[in-house]
Specification:
about 550 residues; alpha/beta; Rossmann fold; 3 domains; 5-stranded mixed sheet; about 15% strand
Length: about 550
């Protein structure tokens, strides 16, 4: 069932050679038994056909495409070396050989991650060794075919540790590392993304609790055109909401996700609204019209250095905008309000983090007063999100370098947008078992050194860090920390029944002074009184403090 054209040729050659050896003896027998030569030749032909037909039948049963082996070999096609376990390699070879994508590739060999069966062939493609043989195999194929092969990883080779080892070899040889697209209809190889290197063991998430709060429910997402908001919209659309409303202040982002969702869920009622969460009147009207049962507030300003220089805008969007959305949700008796927070809200040294922490506190207080269930979900960086380090590194690498780091020792928590969004929805479902507001933290694993991320992205292009692309240090920017944390020391963390979601015990503020200070802060930001806004921010978020506020004022002077 794994036969390929080279195997068929070898069968014919073997039968022909056997016939040449057998015929002299057959001639002697012919004189004794008076057997016609045609009988002997017919027997030889039937023997060949039998060996060949049996294998073709097995191939037909497994693929339903037995004529694949007669596909012409494109001599000028891009050579490919496949790495993975044998069974997965068989499936990938079959898909690529059956592909009509127009991608001109030729699979020259495989590397077995299990280290078994070197010298065997699967569908005519030889197993050329194990992982320890990778460097020499790339050299051999490069010399033999006159061009460096693509190295395509699949199956067990997609595990992070194996991929990192493969990367070191491929970059030293200038070989790009590729993977099969998730879309089975596409059947093409594409470059491995940085997000693929985060590959953690797949979480066993129960979808039914999330479906229970989304299916046949009216859902509203603020910031629905952003990286997180748009992915949440995609996942929610697949769960059958009664109606989905998306609000975003960016016309292009709103247009893009609106167009995408119309194709993804053509039967789902959808309303894409252009609006700014800072506009309390607009938000109230939108919520009144939508009457949402589930609200996800993802709208925010998140670029740390920019927010240091635009304090009032950060406060108006991240604090006033969150308050507007929470109050509007409470006013229409929304069952559940979900707030997307950040690890920068923990012990904040910058305006962005301080505003997100203050938004957590404000939403907790609104939930306590109104009785609305609110879930605040903290997590770290999303790989590839707009304004993040990954797109910046990609541009710098494409330009030939250098790749710039603020500090070689910086570490950050990273998660893919798909995983983060799925866990946000899981946390939302957990909230129905709690009263009022709850704070959740996503399990981000271990923080990743940014230097390692930069080196990995360079190697993904088949280049060598420090040789082909230089890495330089520019110094920490204003408001930036070397390391982030996901919880405060005084916060108690409890594991939930959902793998990857932790509950944090953090009581809401109860003082009436908080409400007065919050109003004064928003008013100061509205009249662009930067100094007063910073002072009040330092008072209301003690972890940020007046010292950080004064430092911000000095830098902006």
């Amino acid at each position: 069932r794994h036969i390929g054209w080279p195997d068929a040729v070898r069968i014919i050659q073997a039968c022909a050679l056997s016939g040449l050896i057998y015929l002299p003896f057959a001639g002697l027998l012919n004189g004794t038994l008076q057997m016609p030569w045609t009988v002997l030749l017919t027997a030889l032909l039937l023997w060949t056909v039998g060996l060949f037909a049996g294998r073709m039948a097995a191939l037909s049963r497994s693929t339903h495409q037995p004529l694949q082996i007669f596909s012409p070999v494109q001599k000028d096609a891009q050579p490919v070396l496949l790495i993975g376990d044998v069974e997965t390699c068989v499936a990938v070879i079959r898909r690529l050989q059956a592909s009509h994508s127009g991608q001109r590739i030729r699979i020259l060999g495989t590397i077995d991650t299990d280290g078994n069966d070197p010298g065997r062939a699967i569908r005519g493609v030889p197993i050329m060794g194990g992982l320890s043989d990778l460097a020499s195999v790339i050299d051999i194929l490069t010399v033999r075919y006159g061009r460096t092969p693509w190295v395509a990883v699949t199956g067990t080779a997609r595990q992070r540790d194996i991929m990192m080892d493969v990367l070191k070899v491929t970059s030293d040889h200038g070989a790009p590392i590729m993977a099969l697209t998730p879309d089975e209809a596409a059947q093409v190889l594409e470059p491995v993304r940085p997000a693929d290197l985060l590959a953690r063991p797949e979480r066993d998430l129960e979808i039914s609790p999330v479906r229970n709060i989304v299916q046949d429910a009216r859902v509203l997402i603020t910031g629905g055109g952003g990286t997180i908001g748009s992915e949440l919209a995609r996942q929610i659309a697949g769960l059958g909401p009664e109606f989905l409303t998306i609000i975003d202040s960016c016309e292009f982002n709103l247009y893009s996700i609106d167009l995408e969702l119309q194709k993804l869920a053509p039967d789902m009622p959808l309303n894409a609204q252009l609006g700014d969460v800072r506009d309390a009147s607009r938000i109230r009207d939108s919520f009144q019209a939508a009457q949402p049962e589930l609200v996800v507030h993802a709208a925010a300003l998140k670029h740390v250095p920019l927010m240091e220089r635009n304090v009032c805008e950060a406060i108006l969007t991240n604090v006033a905008g969150a308050v507007n959305a929470a109050r509007a949700a409470a006013a229409v008796d929304a069952k559940r309000f979900v707030f997307i927070s950040t690890d920068k809200a923990v012990e904040p040294d910058n305006v962005m983090g301080a505003t997100k922490r203050l938004a957590e506190l404000a939403i907790s207080r609104i939930a306590a007063e109104s009785g609305m269930a609110a879930a605040m979900v903290r997590f770290g960086n999303v790989l590839g999100s707009s304004g993040s380090v990954v797109p910046l590194f990609e541009k710098q690498i494409a330009a030939g370098g250098p790749v710039t780091l603020t500090d070689m020792g910086v570490t950050r928590y990273f998660m893919t947008v798909e995983e983060a969004s799925a866990l946000v929805l899981q946390a939302s479902a957990l909230q129905q078992q709690c009263s009022n507001s709850e704070l959740f933290v996503l399990d981000m694993g271990e923080p990743m050194p940014i230097l390692q991320l930069a080196e990995t992205m360079i190697r993904l292009k088949g280049l060598v860090p420090g040789v082909d692309i230089q890495i330089t240090e520019t110094g920490l920017r204003e408001g930036e920390k070397l390391h982030e944390a996901l919880t405060y020391e005084h916060e108690a963390v409890v594991q939930t029944k959902v793998d990857g979601v932790l509950r944090v015990v953090s009581p809401p503020p109860h003082s009436e002074l908080f409400d007065k200070q919050l109003l004064a802060l928003i008013e100061a930001a509205s009249r662009r009184d930067r100094g007063e806004a910073l002072r009040l921010l330092g008072v209301m978020v003690p972890e940020y403090g007046e010292e950080s506020a004064e430092k911000n004022l000095r830098h902006s002077a």
